[in-house]
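Support reply, case 0932

Customer input (verbatim):
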Amino acid sequence: MPASPSPSPLSSPSSTSLPRLDHVVVHARDRALSAEFVAAVLGLSVGAPFGPFLPVDLGNGVTLDFYELRDEPVQSQHLAFLVTEAQFDAALSRLDTLGVTYYADPTHREPGRVNRLFGGRGAYFADPDGHNLEVLTRSYVRP
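Our regenerated output:
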């Protein structure tokens, strides 16, 4: 009997590792529009459809799997992306090119500004479905 292939270290956790996020399903009215928007802002590519999902691979083993809700309202989610300083500047430039306003605060009251929390920079913006997205250069300090 042939041996079954061993799982890839990226496809299954080791017995001593902590759980890690694999994917997040993001609801959208138009999965292609939403996936292409996020990919464009972050400088990524949209992957091939996988069943009802349209993935955007974040490059760290996590995908955003866009799923279309045709007859239901889309509930807003918050997704934060930790990026380098250069990626942050590029994301803001892409938002400007797309005509999308970014804000220093999560309630979108400080347009065209960035925050400087925890020694880094951060900005919030809405995607086509109203998800509150964030790019930040430093993780938040947690107790």
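We compared this against your earlier run and they match. Two observations from our side: Residues 85-98 form the longest helix (14 residues). Helices lie at 31-42, 85-98. Please reopen the case if you see a mismatch on your end.
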